[in-house]
Write a sequence for this structure.
């Protein structure tokens, strides 16, 4: 009898606790998969930014993170803009690798130049412009009291989540990158070689 | 730019009119915002409209929003402005950083933001954004009373975050197109709408009239302060941007456009205006 009672008591307590957990506003439980994805990714990025590693190590860590979480081929092709058709099939792998190295270089350069330390990142919301994309908004706080709005475009197709662009205080970085890549190619009369040379030189 | 700058400092002795000094102040204000400002304070707002792409996503993607019909002239002026920035403004900002410790520089930046309240408040109201107008007023009250006259951003620490509005943004909310991208001597990257906005903001700023009869140096001191403070704030950002940019002119132009667009939208992400990133690989 008492066993039955205590089992009942346990069951009802567990049920109540479960209900309470479900009802309580818990960021971890209420978040969209894309939000959780960005939350984890932000944490990993900030760990790189605030680490004591030298620039080379930091760049390598960022490249690893980038390869796992960003859709590099998609970003790279978009960055070619009107010249995407000019890229030969054989050159794609090389080009994608150069773009990954270039982004890592830019990231580490900017991160090293920050004379402030990031304290943490908070997810502030998300929206779904389409079935295949979620835009996650976050806020990065710095030790000096400043904050920075960071928005993430996350491709949500085929059971995987990949970042396709990041907006920092209203500046979309891949969009910005495309403007610059197209400019390099245009200034070289449409030659992709000029872009390859620039990427090799920068990411050396 | 250096020549004009020196001329402006000596203007009072030459007996120039108040209007000339107003124009000079306007020039420096514009320089502050464009010429030396970090990407987070650059830009103006043509809508970036991306045409639909074909099925494979590889067709040309036009960007009619980035209208730059005067690119040849713009590039020449941009190069001149940039040279002056490297020779004058950047070194001055470095000295400023060396001389003043960070807390003091923060106090100066806070005070300059505080002094800009009348312009922001007027534009909040003109845009019909009463919530932001309320924020501006609360910030002004709190920072005046508890923030040592604006030296400390008590309101920001309490959650009333700083924002700025200008008449260029107000015109944008009324549907006035920005016009083509232009780089003016000294003023740097801008658009006709943005230039008109700056002129109106200068006229609407009480400091313009309070300092009307002051010495030239006194009358331009708020603008000089803003210029140096903003350049100090942008030191690392601009250095890194310059280093990583294949074409600094194009980089600054794009940053200007994007950031100005963001300012007009008060930082909101407009999903329908984001370019499609086709899934091609």
């Amino acid at each position: 009898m008492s066993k039955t009672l205590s089992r009942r008591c346990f069951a009802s307590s567990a049920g109540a606790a479960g209900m309470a957990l479900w009802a309580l506003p818990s960021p971890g439980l209420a978040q969209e998969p894309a939000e959780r994805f960005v939350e984890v990714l932000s944490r990993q990025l900030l760990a790189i930014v605030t680490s004591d590693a030298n620039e080379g190590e930091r760049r390598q860590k960022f490249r690893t993170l980038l390869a796992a979480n960003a859709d590099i081929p998609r970003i790279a092709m978009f960055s070619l803009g009107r010249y995407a058709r000019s890229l030969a099939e054989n050159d794609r792998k090389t080009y994608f690798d150069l773009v990954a190295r270039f982004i890592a270089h830019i990231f580490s350069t900017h991160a090293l130049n920050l004379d402030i330390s990031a304290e943490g990142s908070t997810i502030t919301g998300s929206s779904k412009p389409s079935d295949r994309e979620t835009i996650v908004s976050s806020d990065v706080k710095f030790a000096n009291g400043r904050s920075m709005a960071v928005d993430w475009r996350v491709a949500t197709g085929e059971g995987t989540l990949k970042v396709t662009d990041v907006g920092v205080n209203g500046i979309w970085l891949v969009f910005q990158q495309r403007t610059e890549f197209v400019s390099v190619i245009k200034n070289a009369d449409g030659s992709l070689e000029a872009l390859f040379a620039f990427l090799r030189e920068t990411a050396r | 730019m250096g020549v004009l700058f020196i001329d402006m400092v000596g203007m009072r002795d030459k007996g120039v009119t108040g209007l000339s000094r107003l124009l000079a102040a306007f020039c420096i204000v514009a320089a502050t915002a464009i010429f030396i400002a970090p990407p987070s304070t650059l830009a103006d707002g043509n809508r970036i409209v991306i045409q639909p792409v074909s099925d494979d996503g590889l067709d040309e993607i036009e960007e009619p929003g980035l209208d730059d019909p005067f690119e040849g002239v713009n590039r020449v002026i941009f190069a001149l402005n940039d040279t002056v920035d490297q020779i004058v403004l950047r070194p001055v900002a470095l000295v400023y950083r060396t001389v003043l410790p960070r807390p003091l520089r923060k106090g100066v930046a806070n005070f300059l933001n505080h002094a800009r309240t009348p312009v922001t408040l007027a534009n909040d109201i003109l845009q019909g954004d009463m919530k932001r107008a309320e924020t501006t007023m609360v910030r002004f009250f709190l920072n005046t009373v508890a923030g040592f006259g604006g030296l400390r951003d008590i309101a920001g620490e309490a959650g009333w975050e700083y924002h700025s509005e200008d008449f260029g943004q107000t015109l944008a909310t009324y549907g006035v197109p920005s016009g083509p991208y232009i780089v003016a001597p000294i003023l740097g990257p801008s658009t006709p709408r943005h230039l008109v906005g700056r002129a109106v903001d200068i006229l609407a700023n009480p400091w313009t009239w309070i300092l009307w009869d002051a010495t030239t140096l006194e009358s331009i001191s708020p603008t000089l302060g803003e210029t140096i403070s903003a350049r100090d704030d942008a030191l690392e950002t601009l250095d890194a941007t310059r280093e990583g940019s294949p074409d600094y002119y194009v980089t600054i132009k794009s940053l200007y456009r994007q950031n100005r667009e963001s300012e007009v939208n008060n930082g909101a992400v407009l999903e329908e205006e984001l370019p499609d990133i086709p899934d091609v690989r």
Remarks:
- Chain A touches chain B through 48 residues (CB under 8 Å).
- The beta strands of chain A are 118-130, 133-142, 147-155, 162-168, 171-172.
